[in-house]
Amino acid sequence: MRAMTWLAGRLAAAPDLATFHAALAETGLLPADARFMQLEIDVSNRCNLRCVMCYHSLDAFVRRPPAFLSIEAFGRVADTVLPHAHTLTLALGSEPMTSPHFIPVLHAAAHHHVPRMTFFTNATLMTDAVVEAILDAGVTEVCVSIDGATRDTYEAIRRGASFDRVIGNVRRLIAARDGRGLTAPRVRFDVVMMRRNVHELPAIVALAALCGAGAVNFFHMVTYEGLDTASQSLAATPALSDRWLGMALLAAERLGITVTAHPKLFSAARSVDARRAETEQPDGTPYCAFPFFHVSMNSDGDVLPCPFSHGEAPYGRVTAETPLPVIWLGSRFSELRRRILDRDPPDMCHRCSYLASRHPNDSRRFAPRPN
Questions:
Q1: 83: confidence class by pLDDT, cuts 50, 70, 90
Q2: In whole angstroms, what is the distance from residue 159 CA to residue 323 CA?
Q3: What's the CA gap between 283 and 218, in Å, rounded?
Q4: Max alpha carbon distance in the chain (Å)?
Q5: Is the pLDDT of residue 239 over 90?
């Protein structure tokens, strides 16, 4: 524990990203590769859909003025962070293709030669121009939200979307990629698991194989205050969740589809006390590594505590006078890292949806999130 306290102090004193990384690399908590960061950045605060489980269905979010990350603002962040980054994700919670700057941002990002460039999308707005820009920019993975294997289930969840259009757009992207003789981007299906679609999980894997997608990613639904979705949480029906998720994992193995992440089965995860779950990592290992390598920023320039901190206040706002590293190396992040290293988690960690995948029997992980 004394070593962790020493590390927290050294990280807090780091004057720049390279020094910060060197301190972590010496302890073995991060690889020695100088590209140690992951930047996840929203280019828009809008979404064209009103999915039943998403905060974009709330009136407060619908009424917000649009905020699109400008090329100039992206450039300021990119110049300071991307030389240290192994991954750039051009979406944090909104639909990136709603931004009029999405294609120019893709082209600008390509100049930084980040090894992995990805984004999340509902794929409803994927035009021929967007497909060409994705291929020209060298995007390595496109993560498409697919929450149903049938038109009825999918369109009931993703309100405003056309199942046929989305599947057609996915196939068009893959055909264009293959037509150029490329292996990237890989297409991944991202699936929000809930009671109304859990029985279709194996069929979603089969659909991925049929379309030519190479991977799937499963995660539990996050419940937000103001949305009537608590009854859809699989936390109340663990046997149902385990049955269909288990069948989906078997289907992926049989069909050669990579499962990039999935929650632990309820039956395979030991019950733990909600306030002790974070302390059960091996000694000297943080219960969460995200604040040590991951930067999350929305299209207004707000820097968030972590990618799973929706509803929490930002830790600062990037401006021309305040570059992103100043915030990420500042006092608020330093205090968060100290608490993580000291096994003294703040309240937001107790309701973390990422930790819900590791500790599905911990009911606090499924508590509604504030907006």
A1: very high
A2: 38
A3: 29
A4: 57
A5: yes
Q: Dig out the tokens for 10 from the structure.
A: 């050294």
Sign of CA dihedral 113, 116, 119, 123: positive
By percentage, how much of the chain surpasses pLDDT 90? 78
216 burial level (CB within 10 Å; 0-12, 13-18, 19+): buried
Tens digit of pLDDT for each residue in 307-338?
Answer: 988 888 999 999 999 999 999 999 999 999 99
Angstrom distance (rounded) from CA 37 to CA 161:
34
Burial class (CB in 10 A: 0-12, 13-18, 19+), 331: exposed
pTM over 0.90: yes
Copy the structure tokens of residue 130. Answer: 């967007």
pLDDT band at 351 (very low <50, low <70, confident <90, very high): confident
